[in-house]
Design goal:
By secondary structure, this protein is mainly α. The chain is built from eleven helices and no strands.
Length: about 300
């Protein structure tokens, strides 16, 4: 599956601007006479220009047909919660110590009582940020009519492209909390990114189940249940690549998605191993001893 094949699947939806109606005053006198100017009382104001919503991209190479009244990139949250999240990120990125409830409340200028209306611990703030990354990606894809027509493997590729397109806004946070980087190794509680990992595996399991039902994904006894784990390993590899990527607009990561995803996605579908097994099965079932032995 190539990047261009996914990119060409989407079309821009642009609302048409309504044409303003103009009125002209009736001509008086001979054909060559000047047109009478309308009085202030009868003159009509020009119609206001309609605001044309800008299309939102699902990936760098796509423009998704998303409804203009929704913004999937920023899942709904309260003003208080936004202040707490912002304070948490500033403390996390600006120091080498783990933010605490006390330090977050001081930074956000909120009481601890207000904090605990939204989060139980300081670590829950980081988990919330990771979880919102998954929610934003799935919301973007679900709002696209073109995405709904994709097969299982195309949907998984679209997810990866969309995630790394949107994750740029939180790249510093991801770099600081991703395993084997920044402060993540010092945390005594559950790793912050695990809320995202669980959300991704749930998404992958749903896509794989749909692929098995449509016979696009090959069901291989107990191995099928391990497909989400295989995809998570792929996601981890891409994450490490992306965090080290210094190419302009992370174009190298786009190429990496295409290259690294090819083998796992092809293994999930019908491949040469299945063809070989089918051939062996057919040969075994068609084998007749009397052709070789006289009974």
């Amino acid at each position: 599956m190539h990047t261009a094949e996914i990119a060409n699947g989407t079309q821009k939806r642009m609302a048409k601007q309504p044409k303003s109606k103009t009125t002209t005053a009736a001509k008086a006198g001979p054909a060559k006479s000047k047109v009478a100017a309308p009085s202030k009382a009868t003159a009509k104001k020009p119609a206001a220009k309609a605001v044309v919503p800008k299309p939102r991209p699902t990936t760098r190479k796509q423009q998704a047909d998303l409804p203009s009244e929704t913004n999937p990139y920023q899942p709904h949250s309260t003003v208080m919660e936004d202040k707490i999240v912002q304070a948490y990120k500033e403390l996390l990125l600006g120091t080498d110590t783990e933010p605490t409830v006390h330090s977050i409340c001081q930074k956000a200028e909120v009481t601890e009582a207000d904090f605990h209306k939204h989060f139980a611990t300081a670590a829950d703030v980081g988990k919330k940020i990771w979880r919102k990354l998954a929610e934003a990606v799935t919301a973007t894809l679900a709002s696209s009519q073109t995405y709904a027509q994709y097969g299982a493997r195309e949907k998984l590729l679209a997810y990866f492209y969309t995630f790394y397109e949107q994750a740029v806004a939180e790249r510093s946070f991801i770099a600081k909390t991703w395993p084997e980087s920044g402060i993540a190794g010092l945390l005594s509680h559950e790793s912050l990114f695990e809320s995202y990992r669980d959300a991704f595996k749930m998404y992958a399991a749903e896509v794989v189940a749909d692929g098995v039902a449509s016979d696009e994904v090959k069901e291989r006894l107990s191995l099928s249940s391990r497909y989400p784990d295989l995809l998570w390993v792929l996601h981890q590899r891409l994450m490490h690549f992306w965090l080290a990527d210094t190419s302009e607009q992370f174009t190298a990561t786009e190429r990496a998605i295409e290259v690294y995803s090819k083998v796992p996605l092809e293994l999930m579908g019908h491949n040469i191993l299945d063809s070989m097994l089918d051939a062996l099965k057919f040969s075994f079932e068609s084998f007749k001893p009397e052709r070789f032995f006289r009974l």
